[in-house]
Amino acid sequence: LDFMRSFGFVAAGLIKYRGSHCSAVAGRLGTEMCKEPKTKLLRLYPPTSDGPTVPQETQTGDSEILSCTVKALKDGHIVAVPTDTIYGLACLAQNSEAVKKIYEVKERNGQKPLAICVGEILDIYKYCKVKVKEDLLRDLLPGPVTLVFERSEKLNTNLNPFTSLVGVRIPDHAFMRRLCQMCGEPLALTSANISSNTSTVEVHVTCAAFDKLNMAVFLLKEFQELWSKLAVVVDGGPIGDQTRQGSTVIDLSILGKYRVIRPG
């Protein structure tokens, strides 16, 4: 009886999720799925307990996943993506409506800034006024670090209009770097969770309900409450060591000084 109750509870939660193409058994999706208006689950590779075992760029079909995600971003939508630390929500930083939407989806305080994510070191100079040597940037990036600089005039004025500073990231994640390169502009990036909730490190979490004779295993979604508001969810498997810590944030906006705003 307890098993059946557990089964009914979990099954009911799964049934609520709309769109069978985003279920746990959905296969890799091709570019034709980009035409569908519902949330799309796109898998980079089969999730494993130890995270990715081969480079993302070598996986068959990843170019279609990149194309689909770029299209969603260019259309002004919000997407969920893996990084080198936790899962994130992303939109085009230069699109003011998309920036507004990402705050709404995350239920984020409008006075809390969003970081930007770029694909190359040279991109940082376009959107930030860098006061450190390029060698230092290359020592730190790509990696689990967000560097805070004074923003340049090229960055969307509606992104963090309450501050002259902006945090910039280059995740040590091949898919994310390539995504930024293909978009040709920075992404606004924040953690994939409702504000103040726990950060997320995988798209699917395995849960089991069992009694003495039977066991059922289910795949639940870590940030399921957000899925219906997203155009694309990119499943990159479990991330990192499961500590659920975001990047280390370092303020380098003042010449000759640094300040760790947040350890990661």
Overall residue-averaged pLDDT value = 79
Structural class call reads alpha/beta
Q: What is the number of helical segments per DSSP (H or I, 4+ residues)?
A: 7
Report how far the terminal alpha carbons are from each other: 44 Å
- Using DSSP, what is the number of strands? 13
Which percent range fits the helix content?
A: 25-40%
User: Unreliable runs, pLDDT <50, ≥5 residues?
Assistant: 1-37, 47-60
CATH class: Alpha Beta
Overall radius of gyration:
19 Å
Count of folded domains: 1
- The CATH superfamily appears as DHBP synthase
Which fold does the CATH topology refer to?
Answer: DHBP synthase
SSE order, as H and E?
HEHEEHEHEHEEHEEEHEEE
Strand portion, in percent? Answer: 15-25%
Principal-axis shape equals: globular
Largest sheet: 11 strands, mixed
Just name the CATH architecture: Alpha-Beta Complex
Organism: Gambusia affinis (Western mosquitofish)
Protein name: Threonylcarbamoyl-AMP synthase
Keywords: Cell membrane, Cytoplasm, Membrane, Mitochondrion, Transferase, Transit peptide
GO molecular function, one term: tRNA binding
Describe the model.
- The protein is an alpha/beta fold.
- It has one domain (40-44, 59-262): Alpha-Beta Complex (DHBP synthase).
- The chain is built from seven helices and 13 strands.
- The chain has helices at residues 2-15, 62-74, 96-106, 121-127, 134-140, 174-183, 224-227, and strands spanning 40-43, 79-82, 87-92, 115-117, 128-129, 145-151, 165-169, 187-191, 204-210, 215-221, 232-235, 248-251, 259-262.
- The strands form two sheets. Strands 1, 2, 3, 4, 5, 6, 7, 8, 11, 12 and 13 form an eleven-stranded mixed beta sheet that branches.
- Residues 1-37 and 47-60 have low confidence and may be disordered.
